[in-house]
Amino acid sequence: MKFFQDKRVRHNLLLFIFNLIYIFILGLFDGWVDLKYAYNTVITLIFFASMFSIKDTGIRFFYLPITLMTLTWVTEFLDFEYLSHITGIVTLIFFLYIIVFLVTRVATTKTVSPEVFLESINVYLLLGIAASILFATIYSDSSTAFSISYEAMDSRAEFIYFSFITMTTLGYGDIVPIDPTARSLTIFFSVAGQLYLTMIVALVIRKYLSQSTFEKGEKLEKEIKKEIKKE
């Protein structure tokens, strides 16, 4: 298919699949198996897929995901508190960079194609993943920063869940931010999630409708010219 021949489409589709696995699939096995290595493997794939989605040439652009991959796996095997915090902060900065880049590209595009819709979805999913990493980092620093009404099996799974119910402003009350920093960040991501859905989605839909109207106008103009020529 012509759609999948575009590198940009393939890279964003790959990123979308890895995002889905990280957010939806792995959580299904929480409590059944140890998911530490599974989460680390998939987040590593997301690092590279994210970079491919914005840069598919130039080896220098891949130093950052390689560094993040190294930090992620070293942190897993070496129980150093400060290293865990550094990894969380660097990962957050990386995802924010990817998000800003993709949002800018979506906002400035003149034509709305399927890959633009795919990028818009990936931005929202990456925002949720970035929020979950930040919340998990805060929780690892202070277990009293959040009140969890049940025994958490894996903090990553819990905070992926918490980040998305926060961004959608759903909130069931089973995980509650207690620490002032945790509360402020919860407010930030709840506002960011709603602003993204209302502003970016509205922008994409407006461009799509304008593009559709323009294409119909061109088609009608061609048909009129054909009729004039016949006469």
Question: Could you explain the architecture of this structure?
Answer:
- The protein is mainly alpha-helical.
- It has helices at 7-25, 36-54, 63-77, 81-108, 114-141, 155-167, 180-230; strands spanning 146-148, 175-177.
- The chain has one domain (2-230).
- The chain is built from seven helices and two strands.
- Rg computed from alpha carbons, rounded to a whole number of angstroms: 21 Å
- What sort of overall outline do the alpha carbons produce when their principal axes are compared? globular
Low-confidence stretches: none
Instruction: Outline the biggest β-sheet.
Output: 2 strands, antiparallel
Share of helix among residues? over 70%
Tell me what portion of residues adopts beta-strand conformation: under 5%
Provide the succession of SSEs.
Answer: HHHHHEHEH
Could you give the count of β-strands? 2
- Our count of helices gives 7
Average pLDDT works out at: 81
Work out the count of structural domains. Answer: 1
In whole angstroms, the N-to-C terminal distance is: 40 Å
Global structural class: mainly alpha
